[in-house]
Amino acid sequence: MIRCTHLTKKFKQKVAVDNISLDIGSGIIFGLLGPNAAGKTTLIRLLSGILKNDSGDISINGMQVNDAKSDYGYVAQHFGQYEELSVWENVKFYASLYNVTDELHLMSLLERYSLTEFKKHRAGTLSGGYQRRLALVCALAHNPAVLFLDEPTAGIDPVTRKLLWDDFYQLSTEGKTLFVTTHYMEEAQRCHQLAFISSGKIVAQSSPETIKQALGNVNVFTSRVSYLPEIHQALKKLKGMILVNQFGNECRMVVEPELTLSMLQKTMTSITGDVVNVQPSEPNIEDVFIALTQKTPVIKRSLRAS
Amino acid sequence: MIMAIIRKELIQLRRDPRLIGLIVVMPLVLLILFGVALKLEPQNVRMAYFDGDTSFFTNLIKTGLWSDGYFELYSVNSKNEIIEEIRSGRAKAGLYIDQDFSAQLVENNQPHIIFFVDGTMPSLTTAMKYHSKDATDEGVTNDMYFSDAESASVVIAQDPFIMDTHILFNPDEKETWFFLPGVIGVLIMQIALILTGITVVREREKKTLEKILVTPLSKTAFILGKLIPYVVIALLDFYFILGAGWMLFDLPQPSSHMLLFVLALIYVAVMISLGLFISLIAKTQQQAMFIAIFIIVPSILLSGFIFPLEAIPESVRTISNIIPFTYFVEIIRGLLIKHTLFQDLLNSYLALSGFFVVFVIASIFKFQRTL
Question: pTM of whole model > 0.90?
Answer without folding.
Answer: no
